[in-house]
Amino acid sequence: MVIKNNLLRLTLFSVLIWVGIVQVATAQMKPRAGVKGGLNASNLYVDDVDDENARIGFHLGVFGQLAASEMVALQAELLFSTRGSEAHYSSGTLQQEVKYNLNYIDLPLMVVFKVGESVEFHAGGYTSYLAGANISYEGDLANGEDEIDRDNLKSYDLGLLGGVGVTFGNVQFGARYNYGMVKLADSDAAAALLGDSKNSCAQLFVAFNLYANK
């Protein structure tokens, strides 16, 4: 409960900082805002598996950017993002595929460094809320899908991010990597499956600036 309260305070504090920056500096900044989305390739690095593949998913949401100068800007986003992993277990002749499917609401906050008129480098962090989770099975031991009791998993994630974007007019193409810093398991049962796993997610994205700069 203490950790969850601290997460809520951190998220609210981040939002208040962002709102304050907007109010103080809007008159001097050149804003960009719009929608973005793209491909996720995520992994959990689960222990004691014979093979593991990335879960291919997506992210979708909105962003806002305020340019403090021609070289530096601040950007915030609100995204729905899928994460997880696909693990292969074997025991003798028995084979089993297990897919860990996690869905998050992400709030990335970052500093943007601009190089010329088109290239941007992004660096910062994110907070996430676990919106849903399930495990699907396919193989000799079990088939089907089970909802995960969210009490067994951390309801939040915190991490670092870095990426690059290239802008053409009002459209930006880019890539980003998100490194989770929180262990997912929040019970002994979850730890037996996930061990010390943390989120790891690479993203390809396209962003559309809907704010018409004058």
Q: Name the poorly predicted regions.
A: none
In total, the number of strands is: 9
Rg for CA atoms: 19 Å
How far apart the termini lie comes to 48 Å
Strand content: over 45%
Instruction: Give helix % range.
Output: 10-25%
Number of helices: 2
Largest sheet, in brief, is: 8 strands, antiparallel, barrel
N-to-C series of helices and strands: HEEEEEEEEHE
The mean pLDDT is: 80
List keywords for this structure.
single chain, 214 residues, mainly beta, 8-stranded antiparallel beta barrel, 2 helices, elongated
Report on the structure:
- The protein has 214 residues and is mainly β.
- It is 14% helix and 61% strand.
- It contains 2 helices and 9 strands.
- It has helices at 2-25, 188-194; strands spanning 30-43, 51-67, 72-91, 94-115, 119-139, 144-147, 156-168, 171-180, 200-209.
- It has an 8-stranded antiparallel barrel with strand order 1-2-3-4-5-7-8-9.
- Strand 1 and strand 2 (51-67) form a beta hairpin.
- It is elongated, with a radius of gyration of 19 Å.
- The N and C termini lie far apart (48 Å).
List the helices and strands and how they pair.
Elements: H1 2-25, E1 30-43, E2 51-67, E3 72-91, E4 94-115, E5 119-139, E6 144-147, E7 156-168, E8 171-180, H2 188-194, E9 200-209
